[in-house]
UniProtKB/TrEMBL annotation:
The chain crosses the membrane at residues 16-40, 46-67, 79-101, 156-189, 210-233, 253-273, 280-302, 308-332, 344-367, 373-390. This is MFS transporter. The keyword Transmembrane helix applies. Residues 396-414 have a biased composition (Pro residues). Residues 396-416 are annotated as: Disordered. InterPro entries: MFS (IPR011701), MFS_trans_sf (IPR036259). SUPFAM superfamilies: MFS general substrate transporter (SSF103473). Keywords: Membrane, Transmembrane, Transmembrane helix. GO terms for molecular function: transmembrane transporter activity.
C-alpha cells in the first residue's frame, strides 16, 4: 500500500516541495465556506452567496490558462509572489466591505480570482517532469491524498473563525494565508533550483500560438469536461453541508462534516489512488453513488437527520473522491504535450472553476427553494453525466512513451523534475480544490 509513496521520499527535494505546495493552497479550502457565511450573513440569501463565490471562480477560470502559460515560460517564484499580492488585496478589500456594500463583493471576488496564485500549476509542472513513470503516479496519488488534509484543516479553521470571531475575520485570514503560503512556496522553489519549464521554453524564442492550441491534443477536452462535472458535483456537496449546518443553528458543524468527508477521501486515496490501472469511469461513478446516498439522508427526505448519520454517509461517500481526482489528473498529465503541460493544467483550473461557477448559484437556488436533498441529488446527476463521458476519455500512451523523458537532459540540482498533480481540486480542486468542497476552488 505504501510502497509507491516511498519513491517520493527517496527523491531529493520532492517531499519538501510537496508539503509546502500543499500549504500554499490551504487558504483555498476554507475560502468558499468563509465567503458563504459572510455573504449569507449580509444578505440572508445562499443564492447571492453563490453568486459571489462564482465570481471568484470565474475570475480564476479566466486567468487559469494565462497563468499556466506563464508557468511554462517564466520564473515561478516571481509569478507566485506577484499573483499572491493581487489576490490578497482583492480578498482583503472584500472582507473590509460594509454589509450595505455587498454588491461590490462579486467585482472584488472576480478581480481576486484573476490573480489567484498558481501554486498547484507550478507544483504540477515540477511533478510532470519526473522521468520515472511510477514516481509520477505516486506523486499524483500523494497529492490527491495529502490534499485531503487541507480539506480537513481549511474548512475547520474557517468555521472555527466564523463561530468564535466572525465571517469577516475568516475571509481576511484566508487572504493572509494566500500571501504567506505563496511567498513561502516561491522561496522553496527558488532555493531548490528546480525548473518548472521544459527546455524548449528557455532555449527557443516564444512562438505566437493560439491560446486554444493545446486543446487540440487528443482527449484533452473530454477529460477537462469530466473534471468540470466532478468538481461541480463536489461544490454541490460542500454547499449542502454548509447550508444544512447553518439552518439547524450549528454553523461550526459544517467544518466538522467537511473534515469527515475529507478524511473519507484521504482514506480512499491512501488505499486506491496510488495503484496502477486508473479506471476513470468507475472512480467517477462511485462519487455519484456517494452524493445520491447523501441526498437520501437530508431534509426533506429525512426531516431531522442525526449529524452522526450524515457524517457516516459523508465518510463512506468520501472514499471515492481522491481516487477519482487522482485518476483524472493523471490522465490529463499524460495526454498534455510536454511543452504545454502548465497551460493544460491552467485549462484544468478553468474547467473545474467553470463547473463550480455554474453549480454554485444553481445549488444556492435549490437550497433556498427545495432543500438540501434536492441540491445533493442534483449534484449526483451532474457527476453521473461525467461518468458517462469518462468512458470516452482515451487511455494515455504506454509508459515508454511518457512525455516526461524530454526533461531528463535538464535536471535541476538534485532532482529530476516532474510529478503528476491532483485537485480536490481543484480544487479542484482542488475539491478541486472544495473541497473538501466549495474549497474546490483550491484546484489552483
Amino acid at each position: 500500500m505504501l510502497t509507491p509513496y516511498r519513491r517520493i521520499l527517496a527523491t531529493p527535494h520532492l517531499p519538501l516541495l510537496l508539503a509546502v505546495s500543499l500549504l500554499a493552497r490551504l487558504y483555498a479550502t476554507g475560502m468558499a465556506l468563509a465567503i458563504t457565511f459572510l455573504v449569507a450573513g449580509w444578505t440572508g440569501s445562499y443564492t447571492l452567496a453563490g453568486v459571489v463565490t462564482s465570481a471568484l471562480i470565474i475570475g480564476s477560470g479566466i486567468g487559469g490558462p494565462l497563468r499556466g502559460r506563464s508557468v511554462d515560460r517564466k520564473p515561478a517564484p516571481r509569478l507566485l509572489v506577484l499573483t499572491s499580492l493581487g489576490y490578497a488585496a482583492g480578498i482583503g478589500l472584500m472582507a473590509a466591505l460594509p454589509p450595505a456594500w455587498w454588491p461590490v463583493a462579486p467585482v472584488l471576488a472576480f478581480l481576486a480570482g484573476l490573480s489567484q496564485p498558481p501554486a498547484g500549476q507550478v507544483a504540477r509542472s515540477v511533478w510532470s517532469r519526473l522521468p520515472d513513470a511510477a514516481a509520477r503516479e505516486a506523486s499524483y496519488a500523494a497529492e490527491a491524498t495529502l490534499q485531503e488534509l487541507l480539506f480537513v484543516v481549511g474548512p475547520m479553521l474557517a468555521a472555527l473563525l466564523v463561530a468564535l470571531v466572525s465571517a469577516r475575520a475568516a475571509v481576511a485570514a484566508c487572504a493572509v494565508l494566500a500571501l504567506l503560503g505563496s511567498a513561502g512556496f516561491a522561496l522553496v522553489v527558488h532555493r531548490s533550483g528546480l525548473q518548472t519549464r521544459p527546455p524548449a521554453a528557455r532555449s527557443e524564442p516564444t512562438r505566437r500560438e493560439s491560446p486554444f492550441a493545446v486543446l487540440r491534443s487528443p482527449g484533452l477536452v473530454s477529460v477537462l469536461v469530466v473534471m468540470a462535472l466532478l468538481v461541480g458535483a463536489l461544490t454541490a456537496g460542500d454547499m449542502v453541508v454548509v447550508a444544512w449546518a447553518r439552518d439547524r443553528g450549528t454553523p461550526s458543524l459544517a467544518g466538522v462534516l467537511g473534515a469527515v468527508w475529507a478524511v473519507g477521501s484521504g482514506v480512499g486515496g491512501l488505499f486506491l489512488a496510488g495503484r496502477g490501472g486508473q479506471r476513470l469511469p468507475l472512480r467517477v461513478g462511485l462519487v455519484t453513488a456517494g452524493l445520491v446516498l447523501l441526498a437520501l439522508v437530508l431534509p426533506p427526505v429525512l426531516s431531522h437527520p442525526s449529524p452522526v448519520l450524515v457524517a457516516a454517509v459523508l465518510l463512506i461517500g468520501g472514499t471515492a473522491i481522491a481516487p477519482a481526482i487522482a485518476a483524472s489528473n493523471s490522465r490529463l498529465g499524460a495526454l498534455a504535450p510536454d511543452d504545454r503541460r502548465g497551460e493544460a493544467f491552467g485549462w484544468m483550473t478553468t474547467a473545474t472553476t467553470a463547473g463550480g461557477a455554474v453549480m454554485s448559484p444553481v445549488i444556492g437556488a435549490l437550497l433556498d427553494h427545495l432543500g438540501p436533498a434536492a441540491a445533493a441529488g442534483f449534484g449526483g446527476l451532474v457527476v453521473l453525466l461525467g461518468t458517462v463521458l469518462a468512458r470516452r476519455v482515451p487511455h494515455p500512451p504506454p509508459p515508454t512513451l511518457t512525455p516526461a523523458s524530454p526533461a531528463a537532459p535538464e535536471p535541476a540540482p538534485g532532482l529530476p523534475v516532474d510529478h503528476g498533480v491532483i485537485r480536490k481540486a481543484s480544487a479542484l480542486v482542488s475539491r478541486g480544490e472544495c473541497n473538501g468542497g466549495v474549497a474546490v476552488v483550491a484546484g489552483e
